[in-house]
Design goal:
348 residues, alpha+beta, BirA Bifunctional Protein, domain 2, 2 domains, seven-stranded mixed sheet, three-stranded antiparallel sheet, 22% strand, binds 3,4-dihydroxyphenylalanine
């Protein structure tokens, strides 16, 4: 037990003296650690108080606390003083021009496609769909074969594929997925009905780009499999989605379409927001813009997944997120999304 008398006066005067001598930030910090830091001289005194007789503890405790406050504010004052000196020096040498306008801070934001994707997912989630994700580098099997698009079948020509040269998995070539549909098979293999999933993700195609086609784009895949699911569920779900996304006044059109993995297949279009249906560059003269493909999951796929196709039915849909975003904001050219022009991106 230390009983060495504590000389607060000595501590105080050497602290004041050394502080006055400190000429820069580094010296200030050194001083702070020496006197006020966790193992500094003053905290040491305060910690040692417990060993003293009550009377002395009171007296010394009061004084030490007072000294701490004094030293803390002296430190602040010194800091301010040094800062002022630095500024004056900088002004004198012309390094600081206080008349210059301030630099605005740039605030980041989500990409418009991400914003739209989240809005869309929110709608689907509110309808009971769960969000899951799958790989962007895909096998030929999941991207095509499992979806009833066999090798050498003309249906493969519907999607211009980017193959990964020299990469393969179990001897089979790899590719960048051309759609999010492979996740239908991926999910069904692992799960039993009832199924309600929404799968967002990037897709890639070897395409000549134009105002409505990009080589990289985003889709959300929907899949619902259960007992008693019919075309009415498909239309109800997708029409409800369109109305929530675009307002009650938007018109939608369902037409027959062919996708090898559904039967029957449909495409859903929305009336063109730019020309009101007269025909323009964005709708390529049609007055309608296709926003998604959909259909009743082909029974053959359900059986291939090990489901009883007499008992279970399902619908699937693939929605292009960029298209939806374009409709929402009146964007005329899909290429603007990935041109990295801040003047465009900062509007959202
Ligand atoms: N995968 C199709 C495409 O990218 C879109 C699609 C069509 C998805 C019909 C579906 C569907 O789930 O049922 O062109």
């Amino acid at each position: 037990m230390s009983t060495k008398p504590v000389d607060l006066h000595e501590l105080a005067s050497s602290a004041r003296e050394e502080l006055a001598d400190a000429g820069d930030e580094a010296a200030l910090e050194k001083w702070r650690i020496a006197y006020l830091g966790r193992k500094g001289r003053l905290p040491l005194v305060l910690r040692g108080l417990g060993e003293l007789p009550l009377e002395e503890r009171r007296r010394l405790g009061g004084e030490a606390n007072q000294l701490r406050q004094e030293l803390e504010s002296a430190l602040e004052a010194k800091r301010e003083e040094l800062k002022q000196q630095r500024h004056t020096a900088a002004e004198e040498t012309g390094r600081l021009d206080v008349t210059l306008p301030g630099r605005p801070k740039r605030v980041g934001r989500l990409h418009p496609v991400t914003q739209t994707m989240r809005e869309m997912l929110e709608i689907f989630v509110s309808m009971g769909f769960s969000v899951i994700e799958g790989p962007e580098v895909e096998t030929e099997y999941y991207n095509f074969t499992a979806l009833r698009i066999p090798e050498d079948h003309p249906a493969r020509d519907m999607q211009d594929t980017l193959w990964l040269e020299g990469a393969e998995k179990d001897g089979a070539p790899l590719l960048l997925r051309t759609h999010t549909s492979p996740n239908q098979a991926r999910f069904m293999e692992q799960h039993q009905p009832p199924i309600r999933i929404a799968v967002p993700g990037r897709c890639y195609r070897h395409e000549a780009t134009d105002a409505s086609r990009e080589w990289m784009f985003t889709q959300i895949e929907l899949l619902a499999v259960d007992e008693g699911i019919s075309m009415a569920d498909l239309k109800g779900t997708l029409f409800e989605f369109a109305k929530r996304m675009f307002g009650q006044e938007r018109r939608v059109r369902f037409r027959c379409d062919y996708f090898p993995f559904v039967e029957p297949g449909v495409d859903m279009a929305i009336d063109c927001f730019l020309c009101g249906g007269d025909g323009c560059r964005t709708c390529r003269g049609e007055g309608w813009i296709e926003v998604l493909g959909a259909g009743m999951v082909h029974p053959e796929i359900l059986s291939n997944m090990g489901y009883d196709a007499d008992r279970y039915t399902g619908f699937a849909a693939g929605v292009g997120v960029e298209r939806i975003c374009m409709l929402r904001h009146g964007i005329e050219d899909i290429r603007a999304f990935y041109a990295n022009d801040l003047r465009f991106l900062e509007q959202f």
